[in-house]
Write a structure and sequence with these properties.
The chain is α+β, with helices and mostly antiparallel strands and 85 residues long. It has one domain. Helix content is 14%, strand content 29%. It has 1 helix and 6 strands; from the N terminus they run E-E-E-E-H-E-E. A 4-stranded mixed sheet has the order 1-6-5-4, with no helix packed on it. The chain has a two-stranded antiparallel ribbon with strand order 2-3. The longest helix is centred in the middle third of the chain and has 12 residues. This is LITAF domain-containing protein. It holds the Pfam family zf-LITAF-like. It is a peripheral membrane protein.
């Protein structure tokens, strides 16, 4: 699937799909989400492995990952929720 970025995506505070207006489709949709490992996740992973192994348990949680909200119709990146730090 092709990802299209129209302007800059807004910062949101939710990890769950929600209703968002898509400027490309000019309609309101429930977002499609993808969770990815961001910079904070990798820093925590390295520090957890080197210094404090139980810290790595936190990395399994959805709140430790970045959540990207996309338009389900056209694939436009609408919002980002940065996880962790």
């Amino acid at each position: 699937m092709t990802t299209v970025i129209v302007g800059s995506p807004k910062i949101t505070d939710t990890y769950e799909p929600y209703q968002e207006y898509c400027p490309r489709c000019q309609a309101t949709h429930t977002t499609r989400i993808e969770q990815t490992r961001g910079n904070c996740w990798w820093i925590t992973f390295v520090l957890g492995c080197v210094f404090f192994f139980p810290l790595c348990y936190w990395l399994c949680c959805a709140s430790s990952k970045d959540t990207k909200h996309f338009c389900p119709s056209c694939g436009t990146l609408l919002a980002i929720r940065q996880g962790g730090c």
